[in-house]
Design brief:
alpha/beta, Rossmann fold, 8 helices, about 15% strand
Length: about 170
């Protein structure tokens, strides 16, 4: 969600956030997990920062609502995917990530937020957002935890690739 150029330099622990976002993107590709990418008002906030390693064919969904769940393009894409589980990462944790997580949970999705791949301009806002999400039963996970939860067993080629990725 909204890893955009104009905000990224202001984000608390931005280098770690970018590194974990890239691990999630690569891990999703290895495991065949589809990804959606959004940009909040790109005319004003710019596009996804160049350090985020998106696949060349990745569609980017522009939005103006803080919650991705208020974007018709996002909800149509989710309907096409026929999923009831969402994994969220992005910035800012206390605005767009939080609003998306709360709205997705209210819509009946199982929501997992990757804590080490979300942030805000301040640590306090990031922590407050995580606490708020936990209060309503949103699952808070780490990048490594999530990638291993998406696999069933060791020994596969995807296990080996994910193990290398998280080292």
């Amino acid at each position: 969600i909204d890893y955009q150029e104009s905000l990224m330099s202001l984000i608390y622990e931005n280098e770690a956030i970018i590194a974990n976002a890239n691990k999630l993107i690569r891990g999703a590709k290895i495991l065949g997990v589809p990804t959606l990418v959004t940009e909040q008002y790109p005319k004003g906030l710019g596009h996804t920062c160049t350090e985020i390693e998106l696949p060349s064919d990745q569609e980017i969904i522009e939005k103006i609502s803080f919650s991705c769940m208020l974007s018709n393009k996002v909800t149509a894409a989710l309907k096409d995917l026929e999923t009831k589980t969402l994994i969220l990462a992005g910035i800012e944790a206390h605005i767009c990530v939080l609003k998306t997580a709360l709205d997705a949970k209210a819509a009946g999705y199982d929501v997992h937020v990757v804590a080490d791949a979300i942030s805000s301009r301040t640590e306090a806002n990031r922590k407050a957002a995580i606490r708020r999400m936990e209060q309503v039963g949103i699952f808070i996970v780490s990048t490594e935890m999530l990638l291993f939860q998406l696999m069933d067993e060791a020994g596969s080629s995807s296990f080996k690739q994910i193990s290398q990725l998280v080292k």
